[in-house]
Design a protein that fits this description.
single chain, 733 residues, alpha+beta, Alpha-Beta Plaits, four-stranded antiparallel β-sheet, 22 helices, 60% helix, 9% strand, transmembrane helix, transmembrane
Length: 733
């Protein structure tokens, strides 16, 4: 089947390339409009959680009691107090349009608070709070954009905080982060591709396909926004993922095409064989990555589920682009793929050596001499790297994801340190009676809540029919363990007789999100493991290999998770990476890293085992086939990993801490998997299994021999001839 795809695309190469160019131009114009098409907001919450159920009640007649926007004022002249610059602030606040605003409170119109709460301890700062009529974060951002300039006052510094401002600032940073990441990564990618292939022509092909897929990802995302709500936060991950996977897959195909040419095949045969072998690997690798992302639909939060939909679509697009555009380009390129060669320095030119003298071949044999000892030692190292995870404190996204100089983060810190009351730290308990709300019972309930550690005040603030609202002001950091304990105590407080209570607010939302992820993550992991197991069985006809692959991939993920906790929660390397530790790790992080890194690990596993299988079918030697398979794939796997690190490393430059966390985690996971796991642990465990690695019960073996996706016998592997024209190959031996 894959050979046929190569033949068709090579034969119709002119139309394939023209269609790709037209589509790329279309994507650059229409697809980039996706940035204005996101209507789903961030969508981190679980729609069935207690906090969201409470929010739905508050959307009704009872109404909300929240401060969606906090505008902080301070004179530009040091030492001036609110008494001196307050008139200017009061004038602009009186002139703010009230369309879309439910409530605007300040020192001059204090609402339910005492007016002194709006002034800092040194009386040099004041704030105003806004509650919008809508609780949808994207609608709040739109409302903020219409009135933001109206808050400006002459001679006064104005900063915007609260959830609405945080969302607006994250949105504005997202686009600039993508542009900066691509501006930094693309030149480095081009240089690395040239160094890896030692040919500018060969280097341009993966980059061309990567550009096609990256821009095409915008089209895919925009189409998805027409049929479902997509979280506004997926754009960073999806576009960079599309670029990375496309380059990864193109690298496999280009490398195999050159091998076939160097082994003496003509151009057409080389295209067909490369597509039949490396193309098959790309298809199974893409399927493995897509399966990993499909596991995200187990999560009810819009952020994770829409990430799953979008990622599966983009991965499928990357596979299709690699299997259609690239064979056409390879057919056009032919033997010219080695033109514009980059010469090595004279001192590095060495005579070609047999594969049996290669560095990775010797390393594989070294760990296979004592496979049990090697396996235990490597597993101990990976488990040790994951040990810090035991003390992790999970959080949910908040203003902490922003850089230290972002308004929302500055406002949050200022309110916590300079004011007696932080207007952003509000929770609400919704009290629902079977009949008309009993005010006395609600008051008694509020008194019990006021006794909970961390609750500064509990005040009944609204009644509507059978429902009542109690507003809670709290003091702990909403992402701290103390806040988690506080939410537990609040929810455990006995409700009024004949009523149920629903608690919402940032700390409660955080508890609900962490609980939802903790409950669903094992099911996602089970789904990904089982379906990946089935895909690997279809690819290789073995029952033991898929099980081994799943376990080894989980070990590399464990190491990445431990490192992330050590770096971001404990604060190590914070100066080098440029962030402020918050003493927690975002709970969405393990879900996304499992989805991305597990799929990529399967990517490399399929590529390696495909070559090992080729050697096994020729020689029947379980040890030698592994050593040769490792040797022949080491260069391409380490190169692919390096290129992917450069692409996802763009996340590390992100000013949004959540994205930086994903970037660091993926870099660690990919590097650990491509070196320690793939180069050392896989050979050791394969040696332990021996011939049993390819075992399956007789009925399954017969079924696979008939229906399994094995490579065609018409496309045998090229003979293991060296590439005299590619001195770079010696660097990995």
């Amino acid at each position: 089947m894959f050979a046929a795809i190569g033949k068709i695309t090579a034969r119709r190469r002119k139309w394939v390339v023209i269609a790709a160019v037209v589509f790329t131009l279309f994507a650059g114009v229409w697809g980039t409009g996706v940035f204005g098409s996101f209507t789903g907001g961030a969508g981190f919450d679980d729609p069935a959680s207690e906090s969201v159920r409470a929010d739905k009640v508050l959307d009704g007649p009872l109404g909300r009691e929240s401060n969606d926007l906090i505008v902080l004022y301070e004179s530009k002249e040091k030492g001036r107090t609110v008494d001196e610059f307050g008139d200017a602030v009061r004038t602009v606040l009186d002139g703010v349009p009230r369309a879309g605003i439910e409530r605007l409170d300040s020192y001059w119109h204090p609402g339910a608070q005492d007016k002194s709460a709006y002034v800092s301890k040194d009386r040099q700062q004041t704030y105003a709070t806004v509650q919008f009529t809508s609780d949808n974060d994207q609608e709040q951002v739109e409302a903020l954009a219409k009135i933001k300039d109206d808050f400006a006052a002459d001679g006064v510094t104005v900063r915007y905080g609260g959830v609405a401002a945080m969302t607006e600032q994250v949105n504005s940073l997202t686009g600039s982060d993508i542009a900066r990441a691509e501006m930094l990564s693309v030149p480095v990618l081009l240089v690395l591709l040239v160094l890896i292939f030692r040919s500018a022509i060969a280097a341009l092909l993966p980059l061309a396909v990567g550009t096609f897929v990256a821009l095409g990802s915008f089209v895919v995302l925009r189409v998805l926004t027409m049929v479902t709500e997509i979280s506004s936060t997926v754009i960073n991950v999806i576009t960079i993922l599309g670029l990375g996977l496309a380059i990864d897959y193109a690298l496999f195909l280009v490398n195999r095409f050159r091998e076939e040419l160097h082994a003496g095949a003509d151009v057409d045969t080389a295209v067909h064989r490369a597509t039949a072998t490396a193309g098959r690997t790309v298809a199974f690798s893409g399927l493995a990555v897509a399966i990993s992302f499909a596991g995200l639909v187990f999560f009810p939060s819009r952020f994770l589920s829409s990430m799953g939909y979008a990622a599966v679509a983009v991965v499928a697009f990357a596979v299709v682009g690699s299997l259609t555009l690239l064979p056409a380009l390879l057919r056009y390129t032919g033997h010219r793929i080695d033109k514009w060669r980059i010469p090595l320095p004279r001192g590095r030119r060495r005579a070609a050596r047999p594969e049996t003298e290669g560095r990775w071949y010797r390393t594989a044999h070294a760990v296979m001499r004592k496979p049990l000892v090697s396996s235990l030692a490597i597993v101990a190292v990976l488990v040790g790297l994951g040990a810090p995870l035991l003390g992790v404190n999970w959080a949910r996204p908040g203003e902490w994801v922003l850089p230290s100089d972002a308004d929302a983060k500055v406002v949050s810190k200022t309110l916590a340190s300079d004011f007696d009351t932080n207007p952003g730290q509000i929770m609400t308990s919704v009290v629902r009676f079977d009949g008309p709300a009993d005010r006395a019972e609600v008051a008694s309930y509020a008194e019990r809540l006021a006794d909970v550690d961390g609750i500064a005040s509990a005040t009944p603030t609204g009644f509507a029919g059978d429902d009542a609202r109690v507003t809670l002001r709290y003091t702990p950091d909403p992402m701290s363990n103390a806040a988690e304990d506080m939410v537990g105590e609040v929810r455990a407080t006995s409700p009024p007789q004949g009523a149920e209570t629903l608690v919402t607010g940032m700390p409660a939302s955080r508890v609900d999100i962490v609980g939802m992820i903790g409950e669903r993550l094992p099911w996602m992991a089970l789904f990904v493991a089982v379906v990946s197991f089935l895909v690997l069985f279809l690819a290789f006809g073995s029952l033991l290999l898929p099980l081994k692959s799943v376990v080894l991939n989980l070990l590399s993920l464990l190491a990445a998770f431990g490192a992330i906790k050590w770096i971001f929660q404990d604060g190590h390397l914070s100066g080098l990476l440029g962030f402020e530790p918050i003493g927690a790790v975002d709970a969405n992080f393990p879900v996304l890293v499992v989805a991305i890194a597990f799929g990529l690990a399967m990517d490399y596993e399929v590529f390696l085992l495909s070559r090992v299988r080729e050697e096994w079918e020729v020689s029947g030697d379980p040890v030698e086939s592994v050593a040769l398979g490792v040797q022949r794939t080491a260069k391409i796997i380490t190169s692919a990993a390096l290129l992917l690190v450069v692409v996802v490393g763009g996340f590390m430059t992100s000013s949004i801490l959540f994205m930086k966390m994903i970037g660091v985690g993926l870099v660690i996971a990919v590097l650990v998997d491509a070196t320690i796991v793939r180069g050392l642990l896989v050979p050791a465990t394969m040696a332990l299994l021996g011939e049993r690695a390819w075992w399956a019960p007789a009925p399954l073996a017969r079924w696979w021999a008939r229906y399994g996706f094995r490579e065609s016998s018409e496309t045998p592997p090229p003979p293991p001839a060296p590439e005299p024209a590619t001195p770079r190959a010696e660097a990995v031996r």
